[in-house]
What does this fold into?
Amino acid sequence: MTLHSDVAELLAGAGIVDVDVDDAVADEHVRGSAYQRIVSVTASSRSRDRDRAIVATILRDPHEMGSKTAVVALVDAIARKVSGPAEFRQWSAELLPEIDRLKTEAYREFIRRRIHDWLLCLSVEDGHVPAPGELAEVTDWMQRVLAEEATSPAVLATLAESANTRKTRNIAKHRAGLPVLRVERPAGAERG
It folds into this structure.
């Protein structure tokens, strides 16, 4: 397969006809934008049957950062769509062999961490209250998502006590109705 045939196949499969394949092949930014549209169409489909093949095709792109970004967008979209952690675990397990084909270890690890983050988030939505140690195993980004979206007072209390950043702890405290620590910072000091 060539990049040209891969891009053409992905666009056709998503029903996207207003992107010039030659332009997308020549310009990684045009291609990245096209991948985002392909991912959006893919995620909105009721069927998950083609997801692994689509991910495999996207990940063959020589511009790994762009392909990683597209796959992360698909992971995020599917995580927000599935019925729970078991369905997401099964779906993501099918993608892992494709993700392992990325040459850049940091990109493989980023996608794996994103999947891990979503598994914890979905288990929280399913009623699980994570222990501080479980929270420590997810990214600061996911801790903040949980602080902003969780509805369980127990989860918010755990985040208020154990989140990595002061900002996330304060979001959780505010949402849980707990007193928020206000710290006066000297001008120019970094926020945490």
